[in-house]
Amino acid sequence: MNTFKLPGLGLVISIFTLIISSWFLIHLLAIFGVFLSLAYPVWWLFSPKQTVCFFCRAKREGERCPLCRRQIKKSEGISPLNLRSAILNGATILVFSIFSVILVFGESRLLFKMGFPPTPRTVSFVIPTKGQHRLGEIFPMKIEITGIKVPINAVQADIGFDPTKLEVANILTEDSFANIFIQKEINNEGGYARLTGGLPNPGFFSDKGTFGTVLFKGIAPGVDRVEFLPSSMVLANDGRGTNVLKDLPSVSYLILPEKISKEEEEMQKSIAMGPEVLGESAEDTQMKFYEETKVLGAQVGKEIAESKKANVFSKLLTVLEKFDSFVTDKWYGVFRFAKLCTNIKLPKLR
Prior knowledge:
single chain; 350 residues; alpha+beta; 2 domains; 8-stranded mixed β-sheet; 4-stranded antiparallel β-sheet; 14 strands; 25% strand
């Protein structure tokens, strides 16, 4: 019976094994290589016959070893010929170790540019926990941000609600710490609203900040749950745009069957337009690049679906980054210790 074999499968496995082995060897040399280079000549002094010359081992029978300066006869042994050869073998280990350290540092910087390790998720949206309002009443839901440990420079607040009980009358930004807005979209048919904005470098850094205010209007009695959607983001000003949003709060509003009066309804219209200060809107100092004719719907659903996908590749890179951080932290410690030693002032002799 003939068995089916994939062409080149053995070659692929060999290459994969070589890559994994090389990666482990490079990282082991980055950690222990310097100590091995120093220990090698000492080991040769105590046990010369059990010590292997790397060039004698690598070259073929009859070739000349550049370190031992002899013709290789593997039947007579491949240990270093003298102390000079042992020291040169140790120096060879040191060269490869320094090269390995450089590679690990380079890999660490590359992973950092790719977003590893990610900036810790510490930021939260703060909204009221509950509330009750009359039918037809326009009421505000202020969006505040807390838990800022590093400066932030962009926020995307996506809100979902039941369009049969609530609608968004407007989204105000006059009290926002952001001064640039690229999206302000409302979809009362689908029950979505989005506000996206930010500010230039160095970003916003404070204990608490107001990003915007959503004006809801009760259109039917009952309880409606307003929640932040998984497509919401708060991006850190860390050079990588890391999303530092850690949770998605929600609030339940009770819309009472009692309807507001005609006079109150007229007043509500001015509320929905936003406050005016001395005849000039405070929003005039903000830059806006959005068109309010767009509507959300399928776009938000697609973003939520993508945010829920498990990223195995990211998990693998996280493991690699932790290993690199272990190596680089050890070397940074060595450099700091060396710098400390060179700055120590010796007492002057009289």
